[in-house]
Each structure stands twice: as structure tokens, then as C-alpha cells.
Amino acid sequence: DIQLTQSPSSLSASVGDRVTISCRASQTIGDFLNWYQHRPGEAPSLLMYGASNLQRGVPSRFSGRGSGTDFTLTISTLQPEDFATYYCQQSYATPWTFGQGTKVEIK
Amino acid sequence: QVTLKESGPALVKPSQTLTLTCTFSGFSLIASGNCVTWIRQSPGKPLEWLARIDWDGDEFYNPSLKTRLSISRDIAKNQVVLAMTGIDPLDTGTYYCGRLRAITAPYYIDYWGQGIQVTVSS
Q: Tell me: the pLDDT tens digits for B9-62?
């Protein structure tokens, strides 16, 4: 199985901060990398697909980069509603796998 | 508007079969490119992909659980059912269904249900 390692596992940040989350794959996956946001008590939601494509309706402060094995999700200006857990997921090969998550908390 | 909702038992005894239903609306599971998938999250573990059923009826399973899983669909009811046999306390967790778009790669889950918490205990 392809392992996805996210870093950091958690971070504390303030509204207005720039936040970057990394996701590293155990083998090359091209751009077959998606990002999801999960707020407590809510359904997870798709942020980015294909590493850098913003899902319809997602604010432009979210951006994604990378290909091969190294990927990043950046929130340019953190907003109150962005405090959540973020997961990367590869759809390059089954079984699809997820990173362990990065929890973004309020400083 | 696409919505999905999971239903099933909140408590299951070990060795029983867990049957979960995903009831969806806003899309057709026989329209090309539409799939429904199941994912779970056990305490302290990452999200784990379980199974998927496609618009053409094809089924896909996580190899690590394939012998225990069965996914099926009821087109008329807009439902997808996941059955898991030989339930163990390690299967405790939150189970999600989602719509998967599989038109062109990379595939992604664009809508998720809120999840159902399942506890395995005697």
C-alpha cells in the first residue's frame, strides 16, 4: 500500500496566519493527490483534487502544489472557519490511502 | 444538491455481521462516472478506504478486508449497502459513505455523508 505521511500532525495558528501542510507519499503518485477538510460534527469536504485543482466553491485562499511524492496544502490567510483537520488522500493505486491528518488549532 | 446519509446499528456484538446503508440523493448511480464509496475511521487511526461500487456495477474492495466485505446497490431506492462479516472490536469507528467521481483520473470523493458511529462490544 502507498503510505502518506503528513506533517505536522497538529499546529496552532492565529487568524490571518499563512499555514502550510505537507504530505509525502511512499512512492511516486503523479498528481493523484486530493485534500479534504474535516470539521468536528460535520461531513468531510473536498478542498483540492489532482494536487492543485480547487474544488468548486472552495475559497481561493486554499492552494495545493506538488507532484511525484511531495505535496503541500497552503491556506494563505487563515480564517476562523478553517480550524479543522486536514487529510491528504491518494487515488493513484488501490487501496486508496489517507494521511494521518493535520489538526489546525487556534493559538 | 447531492446528499448522502449513513444508517445502521450503533452497537454490534463481536462476530456479528455489520450492515450499513448509504441513502443518497441528487445524483444517479447509473450515470457514467458516478460511484459510491465507503471509508471508516477507527480511533487513533487514519481514514481507511473500504469499498466502492460504480455506475456499471463494478465493485472494488480494500484487499486487507476483501474477504469480509460486500457492497451492493439498490438503484430504485438510491441506496448502497455495505456488509462486513466477522465484526471485531477493532472495527469500532465512524463509517462514512461518499460519492466518488470517476470520469477522468484523478478520482476524488466530492460529497461525503456525516458518518455513523459504530461500536463493537459484547
A: 999 999 999 999 999 999 999 999 999 999 999 998 889 999 999 999 999 999
Note the pLDDT tens digit of each residue in B66-108.
Answer: 999 999 999 999 999 999 999 999 999 999 999 998 888 889 9
- What is the DSSP annotation of B54-84? ETTS-EEE-TTTGGGEEEEEETTTTEEEEEE
- Which chain B residues have a beta carbon less than 8 Å from that of A99? 46
Cis peptide before B106 (omega within 30 of 0): yes
Looking at CA atoms only, how far is residue B92 from chain A in angstroms?
A: 17
Which amino acid type is present at position B78?
N
Q: How far from chain centre, in Å, is Cα A93? A: 18
Q: For residue B56, how many other CB atoms are within 10 A of its CB?
A: 9
Q: Which of B62, B106, B113 sits opposite A32 (nearest CB)?
A: B106
Half-sphere exposure of B113 (CA within 13 A, CB side): 25
Q: Are A89 and A64 in contact (CB under 8 A)?
A: no
